[in-house]
Amino acid sequence: xxxxxxxxxxxxxxxxxxxxxxxxxxxxxxxxxxxxxxxxxxxxxxxxxxxxxxxxxxxxxxxxxxxxxxxxxxxxxxxxxxxxxxxxxxxxxxxxxxxxxxxxxxxxxxxxxxxxxxxxxxxxxxxxxxxxxxxxxxxxxxxxxxxxxxxxxxxxxxxxxxxxxxxxxxxxxxxxxxxxxxxxxxxxxxxxxxxxxxxxxxxxxxxxxxxxxxxxxxxxxxxxxxxxxxxxxxxxxxxxxxxxxxxxxxxxxxxxxxxxxxxxxxxxxxxxxxxxxxxxxxxxxxxxxxxxxxxxxxxxxxxxxxxxxxxxxxxxxxxxxxxxxxxxxxxxxxxxxxxxxxxxxxxxxxxxxxxxxxxxxxxxxxxxxxxxxxxxxxxxxxxxxxxxxxxxxxxxxxxxx
Amino acid sequence: xxxxxxxxxxxxxxxxxxxxxxxxxxxxxxxxxxxxxxxxxxxxxxxxxxxxxxxxxxxxxxxxxxxxxxxxxxxxxxxxxxxxxxxxxxxxxxxxxxxxxxxxxxxxxxxxxxxxxxxxxxxxxxxxxxxxxxxxxxxxxxxxxxxxxxxxxxxxxxxxxxxxxxxxxxxxxxxxxxxxxxxxxxxxxxxxxxxxxxxxxxxxxxxxxxxxxxxxxxxxxxxxxxxxxxxxxxxxxxxxxxxxxxxxxxxxxxxxxxxxxxxxxxxxxxxxxxxxxxxxxxxxxxxxxxxxxxxxxxxxxxxxxxxxxxxxxxxxxxxxxxxxxxxxxxxxxxxxxxxxxxxxxxxxxxxxxxxxxxxxxxxxxxxxxxxxxxxxxxxxxxxxxxxxxxxxxxxxxxxxx
Lengths: 401, 401
What we know:
- The structure is a homodimer.
- The first copy, chain A, is α+β, with helices and mostly antiparallel strands.
- Chain A folds into 2 domains: 23-120, Sandwich (Immunoglobulin-like), CATH 2.60.40.10; 137-392, Alpha/Beta hydrolase fold, catalytic domain (Rossmann fold, 3-Layer(aba) Sandwich), CATH 3.40.50.1820.
- Chain A has 9 helices and 19 strands.
- In chain A, strand 10 and strand 11 form a beta hairpin.
- The first copy, chain A, is globular and about 70 Å long.
- The termini of chain A are far apart.
- Chains A and B meet through helix 1, strand 9, strand 12, helix 4 and helix 5 of A and helix 1, strand 9, strand 12, helix 4 and helix 5 of B.
- Strand 12 of chain A pairs antiparallel with strand 12 of chain B, so a sheet runs across the interface.
């Protein structure tokens, strides 16, 4: 074991010589001391990928450039991007038709696999970085679900003073997007550092954040064979509704009681919020509007509701069994309805959120509509969403603190 | 966002038809509902990897078979292994010279990258699986190190009754191997489930486990250019000693005080243990023998000491400044000296541990030597090590509980 141990101990910093010919620097999202990917002061990204015998290697930024990489004499392939928006950009590399991750990158769970991503810093923005402020802890918890019949885990952020105070705290349930999992809001989103910094600034109430896995199937449920069935056809929708329903039941019947039993929460609707990104926003609207007895703060980050499931346009008078039909009563009952979208998101996403915003506005339903300038359907949008959303929570309601 | 969200929500279970022609089943280490890798009742592993345009695809089990995969008409490449030992087996796939991870596998940090691995169940062994017993929590904590000048994180297992009792607990510092990181003992090792089960059985004292990152460099330290210098030559060793020393200082000067301040520990040497695997075993011997005022339980899992650093054979009379020169005094001071190795580990690893065992035995130094039957330099060895090691801790020393 000694040779292996030593090689590892050294290789992480020594196997790569320093590059001093430009201001490209290793990305903060790299593993240990990996030299690539790199980012320069113009937010350009350089990738280097070893594939000595490959015929064709392509770079695939999921919300960005897709291009051929250039073969170098040393067996590596390289690519330099155009200037990119700030934030964490998922990507994969396609090696002779095999879509794979880059060993130089930390692996982030996205696209239903452990994918690569590169962090492009945002000038002047440090709200999601670790700073010299009190830090909360993130806990992984395990619970057995009577809904799914399986052990499930969740991540829980506890505010910095949780262990030293005797206070009880409000809770935000915060969901990842489609193809991601319960690790996303910490690893990609930096939700813990965002909350540490917001709480330290005094703008945001200390709160607990629970991040659950957004996928569930009821015990014994067998997914029917959908081969040959049309995408978004009735059979497809039925399976999706089944799984969304299992998630809703797991959250409301198992997870919330488990959290309220395990942590010092304030276990009432005035002190319980839910938000989610993309698919998590769909889940948020389904769970919260079906359980307004449990939630009074609602956030949809680049995803809100799922009107295609009912096949109808969003109508504030009838949506969610008429919960918003009386806007004044709704505003008293729901302390915050918040939706957000990045201005560079694909048109179908932007228009979906904008039409919801317009419908709410025309219907006189009080809400916040936030647009993240210059960002796509990516994590920088959702970090900004959380930064705008969290300070609005639990301010108007009495606290036991 | 809707199309993406829906596709993700479904694809994880629907994109793969069921395979009913054998008793191969998806591995528990797969992502979400990925169909491959699979394992059968004879502990054979099947891998399927998509690379439609590749010329050559090889499977690379790090402690096992390395072989060409077979191209299938559908653009996938397949491989079926011989029966494998139980446990978690790291592997990569080599696509036309590019060594990459398998998107069907959960990513585990090993070999200084996020690698693939497949879990082969061990018949009759459930000590590392989640069971219907009280579960401890795993917390991620962040601390600023005055040694490295950086923010560092660690994972901390708290026993099931930590939040509901007012007790103080002994602490085990438990280190990963070379090329791994602080996530290894939970994600690969299942240390939390092992402790949950041991504590529930009554055999093991409830304890806190701290899992730190085993790599450190002092603030301002610049790694010298080692190109052209011989592997394990004096320049090489010097860098390694520098980094090991930085790790030792970070642990003893920053992390231990931080842990004792943050958690309800019993902050004395009688209630503090350290163990580690492979490189972590080297670190354990360096840290504990240099700080016997801090530690009284010592474990080396497939790694113990680092005699090549001093260039001398292990001599119980002189090793570690003569700490073991008086075996009787040493046995009173150090409550447990424990070393372990898998019987199928490579010869150089086995012989290293065996010669240490022999030297200790001949020198009359009380210790435990554990051999894990049939397992290699892999996680099943280290899970078994922890299962044997943990119940021996903190039994002979008074507790404040």
